[in-house]
Amino acid sequence: MEKGKRPNVSLNKKTRKKNPTDTIDPVKNFERWKKKYNKTKTRVKQEKRQKRRPEWQVEKEAIQRLVNKYNEINAKDAERFSDFPISKNTLRGLMEAQYRQPTEIQRQTIGFALQGKDVLGAAKTGSGKTLAFLIPVLECLYRQQWTAMDGLGALIISPTRELAYQTFEVLRKVGKNHEFSAGLIIGGKDLKNESEKIHRTNIIICTPGRLLQHMDETAAFHASDLHMLVLDEADRILDMGFADTINAIVENLPKTRQTLLFSATQTKSVKDLARLSLKDPEYVWVHEKAKFSTPATLEQNYVVCELHQKVNMLFSFIRSHLQKKVIVFFACCKEVQYLFRVFCRLRPGMPILALHGKQQQMKRVEVYNDFIKKKNAVLFATDIAARGLDFPAVNWVLQFDCPEDANTYIHRVGRTARYKEGGEALLVLLPSEEKDMVSQLQEKKVPINRIQVNPEKLTSVQQKLEAFLAQEKEQKERAQRCFVSYLRSVYLMKNKDVFDVFQLKLQEYAASLGLAVAPRVRFLNKVQKQRADPGQSGGLGDVAPHEEEKELKSFKAQLRGDGLKSEAQESQSSDEEDDEEEDEEKVHNTIKKTEKETKFKEAKKVLKRNFQVNTKLVFTEEGQMVQQWPPLQRTAVPATEGEEDDCTSGINVEEARERLRREDQEFDKLEYRRKVKEKHRVRLPAAGTRKRIHSDHIDDSGEEEEEEEEEEEEEEEAAAGSRKRPRQQATAKPLDTGLSLAEDEALVLHLLGNRS
Ligand SMILES: Nc1ncnc2c1ncn2[C@@H]1O[C@H](COP(=O)(O)OP(=O)(O)OP(=O)(O)O)[C@@H](O)[C@H]1O
């Protein structure tokens, strides 16, 4: 039976298969196939779902594969970034930013850093140190699978705000495929705003003072999970007197961190810092055995020039390099401020920009970006721009004032000839500076040659400067400040073999700035007296050596206009600046103290008598006061361009008439506005309590700076040779008349009526 059954079954199957109706009905056939297909599909899907692991796990496996390759890194053979075990996200970021092959410092550093070692890296300027630490930073956090919730993972400390900003920009480009958050913590920004975000930031790029301030004041900020610390431009950080700040910061960081320390020059203090903050570091000195310490593509020369010829030389240099991009380095902010303004007015035919520490942070960033964008321009700068800043395509670095030492020289010239590009550098030395400075440079392996400049070929601008100063009191004061500040900077330089203020010919120097008389320099007089009479006390010579050192440090920082102070330090330094300004004002003021007192007493008397100062009162012979109307007019309209320029051709009657007409209009306007305001005030006695901020309540300093910055912008345009806008228009702001809209309208209609 059984035997019989089996064939039946198989037979059945066979018969079913061969059933002619089945094969004939394709619809039924398809439906059966579809059913089967769907079943298989769901089964496979289910199996896949079971097999699929969480993303983090997949990433972890990829990381593990990379980490396994760390021990096989062969820096010598790495020709491309992809030869390193680097994450896909970082590689993509590098490719997109057009970085394909590592530079020498990058090749030698990345391997050690990936292996988790501390590194002390030194290489010439422009050799690519930034990427040498940014890639390890990104990889370190990627390895840890860092997320926004994990807080601070890496800290990069830069000496200046500008350098921090630049590093931040490179990080944004290279790290854009990662999901870490990055923050720029520098002075000059809103502290409260920073405090709110800082605890959620994974990578912080900061200046030392500001970071320490957050460590002290921001409750939510802590660095207990920090994995990597980077000290960029360590030599500069230390030079600026931040050793204590860095030590305090490092004390607050976990000991288990990895530290990378970079510096363009190797000084004793850098080595000391390395000893304190690094653990068994790997030394990467790329150009240790190089014949020269500056890039081979950089051509370097110096000229010897008398102090009073330097301004002429600078003007002639600019005139003969109109199509180039040039950075000119000066010793102090006030020199930059004055020479920038007068050079703009001289209109050399190319844009002039100024970068110094007295500008507000936003302005500094703006100038930096502006200079980067321009094809040809001159940037007047203090040493704030000397280190680490990457201005692409700079053709020339001109050092108008002798650098403090060979290291500063190397950093300054490092702004050109970056990453395989060519560049030229010219150092201007006074005869008294030549011998020692040149031997210092030779010691530092700087190949520099002397070239001659024919003094007869220099264009003299002295007369024009004199004319400018005669026209504008403000400009004259700037020139005086520039004079005093430069002398002070020379006096405070440590290396007295190079810098000797007593060898400078002051009268000639003052004349070269357009000043008829050399301002009195109080501190020089004191020192001179002290020298003549060493027994006398109270002079600068009495200052204890360490105090002098302290003064020297703080003043140098001021002169450079360094922007890396904490808010507290900043306010202190601005006080110092004010003091300095006061000092200088005192220098200009030749009136004796006793005389001042008498004047003060006189003024008090006048006030008591209820006289109005600066008003002319006329009386008849009988003693009756004569009403003077309209009151005496003071010039309310600034001179126009033509008038300013044409100061040698006598009085132009047509112009004078036009000017008087404009003055009348302007005067009428002011008078009318004053009267309406007065009337308005009577009607609204509570006006003083209203919330509107009147100009005289606004903090002077900021306003002044803004005004200076606005002026700077105007001047830049003028320098480039573009036609100057009429001043009135250039400074036009919405006029706050203190009136209602309807009254404002009435005023405008009245003024328009006046004009027609
Ligand atoms: N691997 C690379 N490929 C191409 N260009 C690079 C590479 N690395 C760096 N650069 C470019 O070289 C220039 C100098 O780089 P970077 O600013 O990092 O130098 P640096 O050594 O820090 O200089 P400094 O000491 O003056 O601060 C930059 O313009 C940068 O974009």
TrEMBL record:
Residue ranges annotated as compositionally biased, kind Basic residues, are 678-694
Q: What class of enzyme is it?
A: hydrolase
Please state every residue range assigned to the domain named Helicase C-terminal.
310-462
- A GO MF term: RNA helicase activity
Q: What is its EC number?
A: 3.6.4.13
Where in the numbering of this chain does the Helicase ATP-binding domain appear?
A: 110-284
Which stretches are tagged as biased composition: Basic and acidic residues? 544-554, 654-665
Disordered as annotated region, ranges: 1-25, 529-593, 636-665, 678-743
Signal peptide segment: none
Q: Which residues form the DEAD-box RNA helicase Q domain?
A: 79-107
Q: Where is this motif: Q motif?
A: 79-107
One Pfam assignment: DEAD
Record keyword Plastid present: no
Question: Which PANTHER family does the UniProt entry name for this protein?
Answer: RNA HELICASE (PTHR24031)
The similarity comment for this entry is: Belongs to the DEAD box helicase family. DDX10/DBP4 subfamily.
- In the UniProt entry, what is the domain comment? The Q motif is unique to and characteristic of the DEAD box family of RNA helicases and controls ATP binding and hydrolysis.
Report the protein's function. RNA helicase.
Put simply, this protein is called: ATP-dependent RNA helicase
Instruction: Name its species.
Output: Oncorhynchus mykiss
